[in-house]
Amino acid sequence: MVASRFGFTREESAVLRQLRTPEKIQRFLDEEILYDSSVSCRSPRRVLRERRGHCMEGAMLAATALRLVGYPPLILDLEAQRDDDHVLTVFRRDGLWGAMGKSNYAGLRYREPVYKTLRELAMSYFEHYFNKRGERTLRGYSRPINLARFDATGWMTSEEDPWQIPNYLTTVSHTLLIPKKVVARLTLSDPLLKAAGEFGMRRAG
Known about the structure:
Blueprint: H1 10-17, H2 22-32, E1 34-35, H3 44-50, E2 52-53, H4 55-68, E3 74-80, E4 86-93, E5 96-100, E6 111-115, H5 118-123, E7 138-142, E8 145-146, H6 164-169, E9 174-176, H7 180-183, H8 191-204
Helix pairs in contact: 2-4, 3-4
């Protein structure tokens, strides 16, 4: 699929053409996009231009890049308690699910497409999903949302923040990952695992 079809410039298209696999897209998110926790919702065009973004913005850029190589532009929301939600781009290869993510936590990024179900995929983030106190905070996940439903808004190349996408995520039902009765018995994250996850925060600057 040609990037210019969606309104990207020649220069933007040249960058997107290089991102032909999920692995290359994740590497671009890690190495070229500075993590930025500001209250914003930059379009993929603006993320490419400004080279900064948080998980929602990274997910929209990754979904755009995947779309251009034939995947549907799917995102999924991980729901947390006493913590921020995390948005992933998800994809299927040979019937198995994988994911990409922009995060300042090292363990909340890429997943190889080896998971039979979305629940399996979401659970792979459980041990890596903790708040500053070390509490395990992941509680649920949404169904995949196809961003093509927002094409009429021009979300990929808009100069305005496409808030309609994260706003829509707040209306989507989520599936619980762990029973509520188990939550009170959860222990704190292992200190070594927590330190390894926070290594990404130091790199993000």
